[in-house]
Amino acid sequence: MSVAKHQVGGRGSILELPSSRLAKPISYEEGNFYSTIQNNEKYLPLRPFLPHNYGFFDASASDLKRIRTKELKVVLEKLSNLELVEQSKDNVRYFVMENLTLGMRKPCLMDIKMGRRCHDFIDGYEKKIKKIKKCKASTSWPCGFRLIGLKKFNHKTGAYERRDPEWGVSLTKEQSEDPLRIFLNNGLKSRVDIAQFFLQKLKKLRSVLRLYTGLRFYTSSLLFIYDAFSNKANLRLIDFTHSHTDIPEGEEEDGYLFGVENLIKILKKIINEKK
Ligand SMILES: Nc1ncnc2c1ncn2[C@@H]1O[C@H](COP(=O)(O)OP(=O)(O)O)[C@@H](O)[C@H]1O
Ligand SMILES: [Mg+2]
């Protein structure tokens, strides 16, 4: 068991299990969101846009040290019950999901925080004010997305290149195309094939999200992944600590679709430039 190698965002460490699946320490709210999506047929169209859900387990830090990797693998393979288990005091709940970089030689990842609104209605007053300020001063408000982190493999230098959240939050509306452009440029050319893949996925995501009125994703991300050495790629929604499934229509808008629209526009531009 080790800490996942290819994280580009996030605070807690995601574990890589012997089965190659990932285990993310999650809050009760995030577990609840995943369970709702998993247990309700209405969310069938949305499920392919989330990392595959292999269930949950609860463990304390000392449990994790104690459990030998082989046993842990067996425990996880037996997981079939997707209901949430009551979390005991010192335990952390882990969500077991597919590793989206699996089978990639040099995975390139970009974590984009989606939406114009970055606060949850359950946030306290000070937190809310702080988050609103951050949104308005970055690309979140004008564009509906903000870069959290990226790493891409540069074929010219033979090394990874990275951008961090501080860089992402410093970008202006005029610079909002930079994350996608940098991410898709492999040092030799722009990966238009991958841009096409993301464009098709985002169009499909747009039509799926339009099916729902109650969904709100505050501070949630879109994770863009491709392999520098093949045409393998993935696009998924991740990070649901502040996501909700049952908000009345028209209330507490997140501006998620606005962000998706803008990403679609940028991808189209990148693709058309190469024609
Ligand atoms: N299913 C996954 N496969 C591969 N990498 C992932 C997966 N889920 C998350 N990650 C990586 O971990 C990072 C943090 O994940 P996230 O769910 O946003 O955690 P946090 O709640 O700590 O922000 C992402 O930016 C991404 O790099
Ligand atoms: Mg995150």
Question: Would you spell out the secondary-structure blueprint of this structure?
Answer:
Blueprint: E1 2-3, E2 15-16, E3 22-26, H1 28-39, E4 53-59, H2 61-66, H3 69-77, E5 92-97, E6 107-114, H4 125-136, H5 140-143, E7 145-154, E8 159-163, H6 165-170, H7 178-184, H8 192-209, E9 216-217, E10 221-227, E11 233-238, E12 243-244, H9 256-273
Antiparallel strand pairs: 1-2, 2-3, 3-5, 4-5, 6-7, 6-10, 7-8, 9-12, 10-11
The structure holds adenosine-5'-diphosphate and magnesium ion (MG).
In short:
This protein has 275 residues and is of the alpha+beta class. It has helices at 28-39, 61-66, 69-77, 125-136, 140-143, 165-170, 178-184, 192-209, 256-273, and strands at 2-3, 15-16, 22-26, 53-59, 92-97, 107-114, 145-154, 159-163, 216-217, 221-227, 233-238, 243-244. It has two domains: 2-97, no CATH class; 107-273, 2-Layer Sandwich (D-amino Acid Aminotransferase, Chain A, domain 1).
